[in-house]
Amino acid sequence: MASIKHPVFGAHILEGLCRTIGDTADGLTGTEIGQILLNSNIPDIDPQNTKWRRLYSAFAEWQNQHQCSNHILRFVQDTLQPVRYIGKEEIFHNRRLEVNKRLSFIGTELTEEGKFRLVAKATTIADAEQRASRLKHKLENRNVHTAVFEYCKAELLFENYFHSVFEATKSVADRLRKLTGLYADGNALVETAFSTTNPLIKINNLLTDTDRSEHIGLCNLIKGVFGLIRNPTAHQPKIKFEITEEEALDILNTISYIHKRLDKAL
What we know:
- By secondary structure, this protein is an all-alpha fold.
- Helices cover about 60% and strands about 0% of the residues.
- It is built from 13 helices and two strands, in the order αααααββαααααααα.
- Strands 1-2 form a two-stranded antiparallel sheet.
- About 30% of the residues are buried.
C-alpha cells in the first residue's frame, strides 16, 4: 500500500482518529506519541498540548502540506502493531476497531495482523459502525452461527445487548417453524416439534435412553431460552431488563449452539 497515495481525512474523521489514539485513559502516552511521530516522519509541532490535540495538529499540518494521509497511516500502523499489546489484547481490539471506523471512510482497514488492506468506502456512520462492532467481533471469534447475525444485525451494529438477545431468540422459533411447517409459538411450538411420540425434529435416531435424553435435553434448553429471554424481554421495558455484554455473549453463544444442533437434525 506504500505506492498508493491515500486520500486525506476530513477534519471530523481526523479528530475522531486522534481522540481514539490519544484517549486519556487507554490511549498512547505522551512519550509514545512523540516517538511514533518521529518514526513516521511527521513533525511534532504542538508537543505541549493535550495528547489528542497534539496529534491533530501534527496530522493536520502534515496532511495539508502533502495532500494525502500516507504518513498518518504509517503512524496508525506503528501504533497498532500487535507486538505492542502482548498481555493487553482487549485494549488492542477495542482501539483497532475504533480506529477502523474512521479508516473505513477512506476505504482502508487495519487487520488483526497489523497490516492495511483496501475495503469498500463507508458512506454512512451506520456502515462504519457495522464493520467495526466490538460485539460482532467477539461473536465472530466464538464462531457463532450465522443465524445469530442474520436476525440481530441492526442491534449488534449499535451494541444493543437487550435487543440483540431478543432478536436472536426469535431466530430459534422461526427456525423451528421452517423445519416443521408449524404455526405455533413458544413452548407449544417446541413441545410439538420435539414430541417423543411423533417428533417433527430429531437430532438422533431416538433408539436408546441416551438418544431420548439428548432429544429431550435440547427441547428443554430451547424452552429455557424462551423463558429466560423471550418472555421477560417481550413484557418488560428495557430499563428494567438489563443485559451486560458478557451476559449477551453467553446467551448468544447458547442460541448459536441450538442452531448448530438443528443443522444436524434428521
